[in-house]
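Deliverable D4.2, example record:
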Amino acid sequence: MLKSRYTYSLLILLLLASYSTPYYAASASPNPSDSSQRSVSQPSVTINGQLITLQGPLPTLVKGKTYVPAQLFEHPDIQAEINEFLFEDDSSVSILYFNGNLSITPDSSEYWVQDYNDADDGSYTKIEWKSRPPFLLENDLMVPMREVAERIGISVDWDVTTRTAMLTTDADFRAELESPDDWAEWLGRKPLEIDDPSGKSITEEDLSDYIILNDLTVLDKLILHKYTAVLLIIEEEDDKKFLSRSYVDRLRNGKLDSSMAMITDEYDGPDVVVHRFGHHVSVGMFEQGLATEYTHFEVNYFVDGERVEVTYDIAGKQGMFFDIPEEVTFGNITFYGKNGYTFETYFW
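Output generated by the structure prediction step:
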């Protein structure tokens, strides 16, 4: 079992998944001097003498500084855990290593450092980047290699002749690491990246098997993209029922596992729950909501100044997903039940 230094937050732990092909590979015959296949902007990288071949974006020079994908630091000779939260308007990446944590925002001139030796209270220190800030490339965070490596405690040298960045860890650093097998198993519990071609796409059959195996009460399910699906689940705790969106990922070892759950425990009306996330809206009903025997609901919203109205059949269902355009900021929902009963709420 990995040491407690890798515990970051509940969300990060829920976002972990599994292992198949590493982001990097070590060449069996290191030959940093073979630069025939590299452009001037693509240096080589070695870690403790091993030439590293990356599966994602290649190392690149930016104003004389070497930038590499953050996942390089997941190498078994470094063992930094990379957690990426990449959203259109709010992206962040954490680099957790045995002695601390770097919290990075793409294109920001500063980052935050938590030193486990100095920050007993969990506090962070703000630091200015000495070079161009990290930036996103092909859905990967490119970081200034030397600055991150030295912050973690790794020595960096540069061979100008072969354009090779050489990372070296000392005995004290290596003494803190797990065995390569344990580290590979830990990385194995991470989800596949959406642009990773090595995995098998999630199918409806896969989801059905996952639901049965985990004995879940699922109201609806959606496959969001080839490696991620979402389940609309009824859960119960302390005699209270609530609605949960459980995100299921294809893991690097081929298995499926839940990566994140978003729980809604407040009702919009008489045992009715409506919740929007991105371009998906979930609807769920409990005791009184079910007793009302809703047959359908109408959704109203505006797109480009024009009113859109869509009707969905919910007769006999306890809940479901429906889609809306992502640019919609606000919408109304009207439920229609027996004896002419109606209930109106909204989402945003």
